[in-house]
Amino acid sequence: MGKKKKIPYTSSQTILLVGEGDFSFALCLARKFGNARNIVATSRDSRGSLEDMYSGVSEKLSELESLGCTVLHGVDVHTMAHHPVLQSKDFDRIVFNFPHSGFFDSENDRRQIKRHKKLVRGFFRNAIHILGDKGQIHITHKTSYPYSEWEIEDIAELENLILVREEDFKFNCYPGYINKKGDGPNCNRTFTVGDCSTFMFKLGF
């Protein structure tokens, strides 16, 4: 039997999770660690909206809070560096899984790709201000076409970020995590990711 793959997160790191959907990723980490005192988990939507969008989210949030997680709603990646709770932090890891700007056009439409790239750059531009000197920014993203057209590494370079490594994302390393569409009438449905990686960046000095 092969050695079990380790995840790139530990209970000794201060971790910011951005763009959580039903908070199943945050809860997965909290259960692995045995507590969530080192985790700040955020969503773009309000708590009330999340309860309308995702089945079981209330129970997940309650468990996270009981484990010591700081849960924040209404956090916009384009302005999060100025959020009153986040602006004074220096996180070890800032994580955005499967960023998506919403369903407006087909995924291979240049306008849609441009929206996605704007979202990613806004995230990077804010994340660098609340990242510790030795911290890392992680984006998990599909690597096949047309998602490869987002050019994640090129956008990171524009914000003076350096790729540390790219690692295959394995769902079986995160029991209980279910990715969600997060937008539109099918927001509570999962989606097929195919080939995907976690891109890990550090600050360039």
From TrEMBL:
One Pfam family named in its UniProt record: BMT5-like
Residues in coiled coil: none
GO CC entries: cytoplasm
InterPro entries the UniProt entry points to: BMT5-like (IPR019446), SAM-dependent_MTases_sf (IPR029063)
Biological-process GO terms, alphabetical: rRNA base methylation
Species this chain originates from: Lupinus luteus
Superkingdom of the organism of origin: Eukaryota
Protein's name according to its UniProt entry: 25S rRNA (uridine-N(3))-methyltransferase BMT5-like domain-containing protein
Domain 25S rRNA (uridine-N(3))-methyltransferase BMT5-like: 16-180
GO molecular function (one): rRNA (uridine-N3-)-methyltransferase activity
